[in-house]
Amino acid sequence: MTSAVRVDFSRPIALFPLPSVVVYPHTAEWMVAFEPRYRQLIEDCLRARTDGDILSAAPIAMCTYASRQWEGEKIGEPALRPAACVVKIVDHRALADGRHQVLVHGVSRANIETIAEPDGRRLYRLARLQPLDCRRGAARRLPALEGAITQLLSARELKRMQRLDQIRNLMGQEGVPTEVIVEQLLFVLSHGDRMRYDMLAEPNARARARVALSELAHLAHLLDRACESSPLSTTRGVILN
How do residues 4-63 score in pLDDT, each as one tens digit? Predict the structure, then answer.
């Protein structure tokens, strides 16, 4: 879906801040909008639809609050971290109490340049964004990188990890760019708020791929060591997830 969707960065985009990163490009996540300002945000974005197509709803920039411990650049007040994931709503369910449940799909990394604070009727913030991804040209498959991922996924204990089944399925499909596989890996393997944000803020696809490979190799090593020290865990129905 992401490869067919484009974002018009010449227009301001609604900001939906959360405490931590919840979605990367090429990944999807369900969310619930319950505060009045974010219920209004979802309603305004959906109102932009044409011909009833939900993919024509206005994009949203998923961003994160800069906590007191954050030492990087901060934008606006309350302070936000500059990197955001621009998403499109791909499914929507209006709940009886006025809340909105939405499935959002990441489309692009971006940096927040300027913010328009709430004004008049509008309760939420808007921002001008600049695309962050530095890759140029059409997405493609990278056989060497996928070979390294495949080798790690076949590691003795890692191959039993059900959370990685989606990665294996993607790699078995024709036409899925390698960057989609890498983003899915990062989505599964990124741990902690700092790492999740750093991977969102990283514009270089090769750097992200190196991190994904490193984390996958580290996980394979940990699982093998754990099973060596507790051999009975592999025979008592323990699921490695």
Answer: 678 999 999 999 999 999 999 999 999 999 999 999 999 999 999 887 789 899 999 999
Q: Domain 13-131 in CATH: superfamily? A: LON domain-like (2.30.130.40)
pTM: 0.87
Within the chain, strands assigned E span 13-18, 28-33, 60-64, 83-94, 100-116, 126-131
Residue with tokens 């901060």: 74
Domain ranges of the chain: 13-131, 143-232
Instruction: Please state, in angstroms and rounded to a whole number, the distance separating the CA atoms of residues 80 and 84.
Output: 10
Q: What's the CA gap between 13 and 34, in Å, rounded?
A: 20
Beta carbons within 10 angstroms of residue 142's beta carbon? 18
Q: Among residues 157, 147, 232, 180, which one has the least CA distance to residue 3? A: 180
